[in-house]
User: What shape does this take?
Amino acid sequence: MERVIDEEFLRRLGNLRFIARRRRKGDIFGVHPSPRSGMSLEFADYRPYTPGDDFRYVDWNVYGRLDRILVKRFSRESDLPIYILLDLSSSMRIGTPSKASYATHLSAALAYLGLRSLDRVGLYPFTDRLGRPIPPRHGMGQMAHILSALAGLEPVGETSIDRAAAEFNSHSRESGIVVLISDFLTADGYEEGLGRLVHRGHEPIAIQILAPEEVHPSGLGRMQLIDVETKQRVRLTVDRSTIASYEKRLEEHLRRLRRALFERRIPYFLALTDLPLSRFIHEELRRGGVIE
Assistant: This one.
């Protein structure tokens, strides 16, 4: 797979960070509020001011000297485990760029955001089973491990979100943010897997990656279709009514997915591979309240 991400793109991410919906415990001084009582408010570090921060924690002495608005970080702020579950089944090969390429670039960007905020980030590729995981750790050394792993991954096999989620729960020792990146085009179901993640106490985020040609196919005439996961072949003649029927069934599938996520209060985002990744992160994820 091509180079996953470049430094210029990472610089354009600015000071974005994940938003945790619930208070939780943590191991070090991060940027997410912790519920631990009796913790000291010992000063730990500075970070750049972002809109919404409490002005009581702005260091105005630093501002006077450096003309920079910095916020004090205290030990009562804790780190947050962030788990990236990345679908690498054969259907992710589709598209130009491929859905797999788009998804791996997105995974790298989100890992960078988490690690930069002193969170622990882990990578969990999956198909119909969980692949070799990279457990969540701190530091930019972890970023190098994640980038190396992403560069060596290739889409193969079938998808089972239900089975992968069950295996993931057995690996994760504590709850955290779970970013589930997939095309969600699976015959094996996904509702049981989503339920398992929520029941385990995780905060899932669902990001569906689709290619434009999957949403609005344009080919007409006699052709042979091959299922990239099962290798099943179907010969048919495609006309406008065939395409209209396909688009209707796809919309029904998306409606069921959105309903399943809404019922579990899981944020949902759809990214087509022709949408620039920076726009998706800066506009869609920020608008959806996932990052700030």
About this structure: The longest strand covers residues 203-210. Confidence is low (pLDDT under 50) at residues 23-41.
